[in-house]
UniProtKB/TrEMBL annotation:
Functions both as NADH oxidoreductase and as regulator of apoptosis. In response to apoptotic stimuli, it is released from the mitochondrion intermembrane space into the cytosol and to the nucleus, where it functions as a proapoptotic factor in a caspase-independent pathway. Release into the cytoplasm is mediated upon binding to poly-ADP-ribose chains. The soluble form (AIFsol) found in the nucleus induces 'parthanatos' i.e. caspase-independent fragmentation of chromosomal DNA. Binds to DNA in a sequence-independent manner. It holds the Pfam family AIF_C. The keyword DNA-binding applies. GO terms for cellular component: mitochondrial inner membrane; mitochondrial intermembrane space; nucleus; perinuclear region of cytoplasm. InterPro entries: AIF_C, FAD-oxidoreductase/Apoptosis, FAD/NAD-bd_sf, FAD/NAD-binding_dom, FAD/NAD-linked_Rdtase_dimer_sf. Monomer (oxidized form). Homodimer (reduced form). Upon reduction with NADH, undergoes dimerization and forms tight, long-lived FADH2-NAD charge transfer complexes (CTC) resistant to oxidation. Also dimerizes with isoform 3 preventing its release from mitochondria. Interacts with XIAP/BIRC4. Interacts (via N-terminus) with EIF3G (via C-terminus). Interacts with PRELID1. Interacts with CHCHD4; the interaction increases in presence of NADH. GO terms for biological process: apoptotic process; positive regulation of programmed cell death. Keywords: Acetylation, Apoptosis, Cytoplasm, DNA-binding, FAD, Flavoprotein, Isopeptide bond, Membrane, Mitochondrion, Mitochondrion inner membrane, NAD, Nucleus, Oxidoreductase, Phosphoprotein, Transit peptide, Ubl conjugation. Its cofactor is FAD. It is found in: Cytoplasm, Perinuclear region; Mitochondrion inner membrane; Mitochondrion intermembrane space; Nucleus. This is Apoptosis-inducing factor 1, mitochondrial. It comes from Danio rerio (Zebrafish). The gene is aifm1.
């Protein structure tokens, strides 16, 4: 019998040719007679030449043969389907009759997997599953092949967790048969012999334990339907039972990382903490996640170069606690660990909270996808993000090129670890040289200078300016300050430009450009801060070419849902223009403002932050605005009294706060004793206390309060007003510096 497809392949070309010729003749007839085509064409409908006798008969034969072949194919297909259906029905009837017979007792060898063909499945499946005896009344054994038994050798038993829990130490009874089983059973893949465990097949009816004195093989399955019901009835105290799920490793890096944080703060410094408090103040249910590459919780940095060095506690490097001028003791940490929420629980806490993820660094930022990638490979999505990465200490290029021996004997002071390391070094070496005459360098010089009284420690400070803080203070006040630092026991070397540094004979040799040579055991480089802008490339954020840092607007916004605060922010000051500030109080103020704007405040940066420094026990100053020695200055001074010291000022106020920030409580230098004032160094004057105004186009843009405390709101208002003043002596009277 030929196949329909073969016939069609042979006849199709002839049929197509005949049809084509028919259509062509029809078109010609219509064009000649100008009338519609009749339903039955009388044109020649054969492939032969017109006028032939049997052209229509050939066409009818081809079409008829094709129809006949198709009918034969359809008949054979329906017949075969009917036979398969009848065979299937006979198999089902045979299986039901076998299940109605009693099953034999189980043998102590593994049975061959039972072949079962459910009515709704074509592929047979097998089952040898052990059901727990606790939740059932009678054991059930289902088998369509009762006799054959095959011993199976398994090198490594494979046990499914949900099955293994139900096969250990189960009491055995005589099996009974259950006929009504509807769900298909999955084929077993491996077996394991377990002592005193029954072989029980899961069914719809309750199952009772099976009694048997001999061990019975247990077959584990790759997948078991209704597995939850098996595991729930398993004994919980079975020592050999496999757990239902793998235990969670609490040390795994991805377990304490949220997949999503509504408020994500990158950086664990002062700005981030201030922003977190501001966010929580405006949104009490906010969930805030702080990510920091340090191992410590958020802390304040100023005490690292000030108060901690004057502590009498021998374990200050461990406790990190210090006494303020008012005698109160506190920690450098803003809040204790109990204040924070675990990162793993942040999403579960009912009223939200602040979580800190330590020892992690954000290495990539996807601003379009609103997610960041961490150094451990995990990713966190966010709704609003704050970048407060701060900065890293700069180093001199001559030190970077000097080699490993010089680098490992150089400290870049910034973190808690740096304080601990330098404190230890100061007790072990004979000489320390501080390179830099700014705030940090001068503060560390005074702090270490106090220890120079101890036998064998020499402290030196060198910088290219003519005096300490020569870039900030006017020259006359800088020179006077340098003498005060020398009184603290520091060997100050001015006009010193480092040419190269070498290591010879267990000493570091610092050669200056003018030929001078300084030998020392250790170097502290305090030459400024480089803002951390590593995320600018991946995030597509703009970096300011003049000041450095991320370029943001007056609302500290870099993108619609990204803000920047602290040392890394180059912001637009609506009074003083574009700026970047590297001081503690600026981190507090900018962080607080960024947090408010992240919750919808949309406030510009108008609050001028302040900064302060203390040099010795009786000299301290506070400053605000643009304080640059290259600007014209006007100083108004008065004679200092006993209350014009940082210690007296904080005792009078009852607080240790030197900044008007909400998150700080830091006082000046912790030295109870007094030091004789330094001799006058210019015009025989002693600059006891005074106000220094910094001018730009006759407008005050910066103010330094020299040993004048608790007057910062007045200075802030003067800068905010932005008015030109003809007589600054009258402006100085607002500070009441002439009071006794």
């Amino acid at each position: 019998m030929f196949k329909c497809k073969t016939v069609w392949n042979k006849l199709a070309p002839l049929a197509r040719a005949s049809s084509t010729l028919c259509l062509q003749n029809a078109r010609k007839s219509v064009l000649r007679h100008g009338r519609r085509l009749e339903m039955v064409q009388r044109a020649q409908m054969s492939s032969g030449p017109p006028g032939g006798g049997g052209e229509n008969a050939v066409y009818f034969v081809l079409v008829g043969a094709a129809c006949l072949g198709g009918g034969i194919y359809a008949y054979r297909t329906v017949s075969q389907d009917s036979e398969r259906y009848n065979e299937r029905m006979r198999q089902i009837a045979s299986r039901q009759s076998q299940e109605s017979k009693p099953a034999k007792a189980l043998e102590p060898v593994a049975e061959e997997p039972t072949l079962i063909e459910p009515a709704v499945e074509e592929s047979p499946v097998t089952e040898d599953i052990v059901e727990s005896p606790e939740a059932v009344a009678e054991p059930i054994v289902k088998s369509s092949i009762p006799e054959p038994a095959v011993e199976i050798a398994v090198t490594e038993p494979v046990v499914e967790a949900s099955v293994a829990e139900s096969v250990i130490e189960s009491p055995l009874m005589e099996p009974v048969v259950e006929a009504s089983v509807q769900e298909p059973i999955i084929e077993a893949t491996a077996t394991e012999t377990v002592a005193e465990a029954p072989e029980v097949i899961q069914s719809e009816e309750p199952i009772a334990p099976v009694v048997e004195s001999e061990p019975v093989p247990v077959v584990s399955t790759e997948h078991v339907p209704e597995a939850s019901s098996v595991s729930e009835s398993a004994p919980e105290t079975s020592p050999a039972a496999a757990p239902a799920a793998e235990p969670i490793d609490p040390t795994a890096p991805h377990l304490d990382v949220l997949e999503h944080a509504p408020y994500l703060l990158i950086g664990g410094g002062t700005a981030s903490f201030a922003a977190a408090r501001s966010i929580r103040a405006r949104d009490p249910g906010a969930r805030v996640l702080i990510i920091t590459e340090e191992s410590d919780l958020p802390y304040m940095r100023p005490p690292l170069s000030k108060e901690l060095w004057f502590s009498d506690d021998p374990k200050v490097t461990e406790s990190l606690r210090f006494k303020q001028w008012n005698g109160k003791e506190r920690s450098i940490y803003f809040q204790p660990p109990s204040f924070y929420v675990s990162p793993a629980d942040l999403a579960k806490v009912e009223n939200g909270g602040v979580a800190v993820l330590t020892d992690r660094k954000v290495v990539h930022m996807d601003v379009r996808g609103n997610k960041v990638k961490l150094s451990d490979g995990s990713e966190i999505s966010y709704e609003k993000c704050l970048i407060a990465t701060g900065g890293v200490p700069r180093n001199l290029q001559v030190i970077d090129r000097a080699g490993e021996e010089v680098i490992k004997r150089t400290t870049l002071f910034r973190k808690i670890e740096d304080f601990r390391s330098l404190e230890k070094i100061s007790r072990e070496v004979k000489s320390i040289t501080i390179i830099g005459g700014g705030f940090l360098g001068s503060e560390l010089a005074c702090a270490l200078g106090r220890r120079s009284a101890d036998p064998g420690l020499e402290v030196m400070q060198l910088f290219p300016e003519k005096g300490n803080m020569g870039k900030v203070l006017p020259e006359y006040l800088s020179n006077w300050t340098t003498e005060k630092v020398r009184k603290e026991g520091v060997n100050v070397i001015t006009d010193a430009v480092v040419k190269n540094v070498t290591y010879k004979n267990d000493k570091l040799e610092i050669k200056l450009k003018d030929g001078r040579l300084v030998k020392t055991d250790h170097i502290v480089a305090a030459v400024g801060l480089e803002p951390s802008v590593e995320l600018a490339k991946s995030a597509g954020l703009e970096v300011d070419s003049d000041f450095g840092g991320y370029r943001v607007n007056a609302e500290l916004q870099a993108r619609s849902n990204i803000w920047v605060a602290g040392d890394a922010a180059c912001f637009y000051d609506i009074k003083l223009g574009r700026r970047r500030v590297e001081h503690h109080d600026h981190a507090v103020v900018s962080g607080r403002l960024a947090g408010e704007n992240m919750t919808g405040a949309n406030k510009p940066y108008w609050h001028q932050s302040m900064f302060w420094s203390d040099l010795g026990p009786d000299v301290g100053y506070e400053a605000i605005g643009i304080v640059d020695s290259s600007l014209p200055t006007v100083g108004v001074f008065a004679k200092a009294t006993a209350k014009d010291t940082p210690k007296a000022a904080t005792e009078q106020s009852g607080t240790g706060i030197r900044s008007e920030s909400e998150t700080e409580a830091v006082a000046g230098v912790l030295e109870v004793g007094t030091v004789t004032p330094a001799p006058p160094v210019q015009q025989k004057e002693d600059y006891g206390k005074g106000i220094i105004f910094y001018l730009r186009d006759k407008v005050v843009v910066g103010i330094v309060l020299w040993n004048v405390f608790n007057r910062m709101p007045i200075a802030r208002k003067i800068i905010k007003d932005g008015e030109a003043h003809t007589d600054l002596n009258e402006v100085a009277k607002l500070f009441n510096i002439h009071e006794d």
